[in-house]
Structures are given as structure tokens and as C-alpha cells.
Amino acid sequence: MEKSEMLRTAMPSAVHSAGIDLVDLCRWDLAVARTKGELLQRVFSEAERTAARHTAADGATSPERTLGRAFGVKEGVVKAVGGLPPGACLKDIQVEIAPGEQPWPVRLHGELGHWAARHDVEMVGGAHELGDDMAAAWAAAHPRTNRPRTDRPGADRDGESS
Predict the structure, then answer these.
(1) Please, which residues bridge with residue 18 across strands?
(2) 43-69: string of b/e by CB count within 10 Å (b at 16+)?
(3) For FRET with 91, which of 71, 76, 123, 143 sits at 20 to 30 Å CA-CA?
């Protein structure tokens, strides 16, 4: 399957906002090595680091490279929400990395979670290697799939019972 076709099939059909990022994986590798892994601990949760290790079990890529692509997704989220709000950090964006599966669900916490709730959206993202140690990453906010039902008797337009 062509890369453009992969992106087309992974992207939600209804998009509220989106962001993209290009990740130079060689620079990413250097940053991880220079910080002796502290960068990974500062940017990613333990769950994300563990998931990256599990996806690397097939030997196709390293956990660090998987996290480099996830970093690009986090950067795409920041662009989709219009910037990192005061008090927020990249760890507030949790990419649910799954082997061979994309798009990845993205969970937002703190101020970013409040943004998602205000806009009634959920976030997904993905990344694809382009060759030459570059990866294209994206994130998209789309309307929640588990919206409250408003067709119940006694429910108003906001899903609240009267």
C-alpha cells in the first residue's frame, strides 16, 4: 500500500483539527544518546516506554525509534490544539503505541484533557517512516465516538435529563 493511501485510510473522516510533524530520526537518536535516556523519561510515561519495547520485540525497529515516531505524534497534537497550554507538558499527551496498529489512540490529560472535553473530541495519531531516517507523524482530533445519547425520553439537547 502506498504511503499516501495509508495516511488516507488511517485519518478519521470527520476532523476537528489536525497537526503534522516531520521527525529527523538521526537527530532524535543523537538527542536520546546525549541525554542518556533522560529525554525519554521526561517526555514519555512508563506505559509508553514499555509499549515501545514490546513493539520492538519483532526486531524491525528499536524502542527509541518507535518513541521518536510517538514524539512526532505528540508534536502533532500540540499543533492540533493550537499550542501547549500553560502548565501542560508533553507527558500530558499519552500515545497508546500498539504493534503494527495505526492510528494510535491518544489520551490527553490536564489542560489538554480539558481542551478535548470543551471541544467534545478525541485524538488519534500515527507515524510512517519516509526513508532517509525521516518520519512523518500526524495527530487529528475528531468528534467523540461515544457521545451521550440525546434521543432518550426526558433528555435535552446536551444529554442531561430534565
Answers:
(1) 140
(2) bbbeebbebbeebbeeeeebbbbbbbb
(3) 143
Tens-digit pLDDT profile for residues 140-152: 999 888 654 344 3
Q: List, in sequence order, every residue forming a beta bridge with 22; answer none if it has no partner.
A: 136
> Quick check: helix, strand or coil at residue 49?
helix
Chain centroid, CA 67 distance in Å: 11
Gap between the terminal Cα atoms of the chain? 51
- pLDDT tens for 98-154 read 887 789 999 999 999 999 999 999 999 999 989 999 999 999 999 888 654 344 344
CA–CA separation, 7 and 74 (whole Å): 17
